[in-house]
């Protein structure tokens, strides 16, 4: 019957439309899932990139050929670099333990004074004292500024590349279990391995949370004066305008003096 045929055709058309709509909805859900997954990966990867750069591999010796003259770094700014001294082993903890210390970091952007926790992080402070007294940090740049999610100025690599170190490594001390690093915190940078602390350190200019999954990062002191210096450098941003790179305002460590309190 014509009416029956029309009904059947209408049913088929309806079923086809429903199928198309279902397929379209399924594609949309898949696309949303893919986009969500990609965003998650990007966010995680972004955090990993920030952190792995914040936490350098001090075992790298690629800086051996660095020159002693200013050179353009990856973000286009110029900063002093030099071939770092290399030491066979870290100094003994006894150099710093059971005491607190005062440090004055003279930089091209202004002086920064610090209190060092030899009682809480003796190996880290012993290393910092030893390297400071030996002139390891003199005429070196603070090569990295982060301005999004992580708020730190990173220094302590004579090569200015983020991969230089003193030739020795040691483990984590005094890392906060909650991953919180308040403004003014002085902490060590490292690689993915918890035992890759060396010479690079960072100063926190704004409250920052860092992951604790690999043990956190050694807090070995705090800024007691000069936080405004860090914040002024941070306010100027990076040389290339990104959230992570060399500071637009170059910061050179001229010298560090350390005295027991």
TrEMBL record:
EC number: 5.2.1.8
Gene3D superfamilies: Cyclophilin-like
Comp. bias (Basic residues): 10-19
Record region (Disordered): 1-28, 58-93
Keyword Membrane attributed: yes
Annotated keywords: Isomerase, Membrane, Rotamase, Transmembrane, Transmembrane helix
Compositionally biased tracts (Low complexity): 58-81
Start and end residues of each PPIase cyclophilin-type domain: 107-258
PANTHER family: PEPTIDYL-PROLYL CIS-TRANS ISOMERASE B-RELATED, PEPTIDYL-PROLYL CIS-TRANS ISOMERASE-RELATED
Function per UniProt: PPIases accelerate the folding of proteins. It catalyzes the cis-trans isomerization of proline imidic peptide bonds in oligopeptides.
Protein name: Peptidyl-prolyl cis-trans isomerase
């Amino acid at each position: 019957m014509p009416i029956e045929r029309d009904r059947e055709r209408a049913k088929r058309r309806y079923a086809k439309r429903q199928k198309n709509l279902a397929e379209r909805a399924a594609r949309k859900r898949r696309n949303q899932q893919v986009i969500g997954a990609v965003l998650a990966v990007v966010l995680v990867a972004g955090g990993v990139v920030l952190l792995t750069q914040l936490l350098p591999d001090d075992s790298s010796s690629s800086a051996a050929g660095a020159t002693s003259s200013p050179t353009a770094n990856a973000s286009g700014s110029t900063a002093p670099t030099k071939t770092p001294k290399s030491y066979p082993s870290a100094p003994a903890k006894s150099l710093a333990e059971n005491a607190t210390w005062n440090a004055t970091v003279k930089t091209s952007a202004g002086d920064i004074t610090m209190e060092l926790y030899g009682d809480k992080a003796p190996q880290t402070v012993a290393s910092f004292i030893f390297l400071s007294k030996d002139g390891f940090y003199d005429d070196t740049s603070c090569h990295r500024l982060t301005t999004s999610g992580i708020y730190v100025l990173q220094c302590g690599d004579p090569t200015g590349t983020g991969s230089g170190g003193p030739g020795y490594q040691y483990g984590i001390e005094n890392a906060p279990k909650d991953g919180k690093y308040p403004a003014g915190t002085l902490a060590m940078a490292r690689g993915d391995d918890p035992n890759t602390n060396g010479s690079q350190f960072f100063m926190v200019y704004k409250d920052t949370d860092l992951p604790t999954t690999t043990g956190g990062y050694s807090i070995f002191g705090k800024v007691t004066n000069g936080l405004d210096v860090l914040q002024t450098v941070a306010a100027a941003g990076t040389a290339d305008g990104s959230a992570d790179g060399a500071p637009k305002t170059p910061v050179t460590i001229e010298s560090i003096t350390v005295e027991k309190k």
